[in-house]
Amino acid sequence: MGRTSDAKEKILGAARTLIELRGYSALGVAEICKSAGVPKGSFYYFFDTKEALALAVIDEHWADQERTWKRILGGEGEPLDRLRRLFEATQAVQRAGQRDCGTVSGCLFGNLTLEMSNQTEAIRGRLQEIFEAQVEMIDAVIVEALARGDVTVADTKEAARSVVAQLEGHVLFAKLYNDTQRLGPLWANCLVLLGARAEMAGGL
User: Phi and psi of 98, rounded to 5°?
Assistant: First the structure.
């Protein structure tokens, strides 16, 4: 059982790395198995199709990311300070990826949205659920900030959508230009978007 589980994790890890580097469509099962160091038959033991593997990669990546988001956004400190820490963590992930691979990999979910959302309804639906979950988590923080008078948005849910969109957009530009400096203005722009009080913007 341990070796079986290990083989599955190798396939998932290899697929995630290859998808981040090259995208989903160009990958074949044989290449994934070769990179994972497992026989091709192992793939079909765990996954009926390549789409099933992509969904498993998405779910595994989200499980990791969701834990991080909950830890940061649900941690101690003022709401805007917690939101800023999430932005900083995103920047750190992109910088680490660039150091390891030589290129900015971007967001797995954003990359797959651009590549796959019009090709498979299952992947489109799962990505929608993930982005909605991100919006809900950020909305909860904005609601806190609004109650404190730290921000002045009229609709917290729409503001949260805009924050997620801005985060994704800046990461996309960082990938396009292979330059994590493109993430630099992210937090200042977010504060403007949220209508943060001047003293809040200056103190964070």
Answer: -65, -40
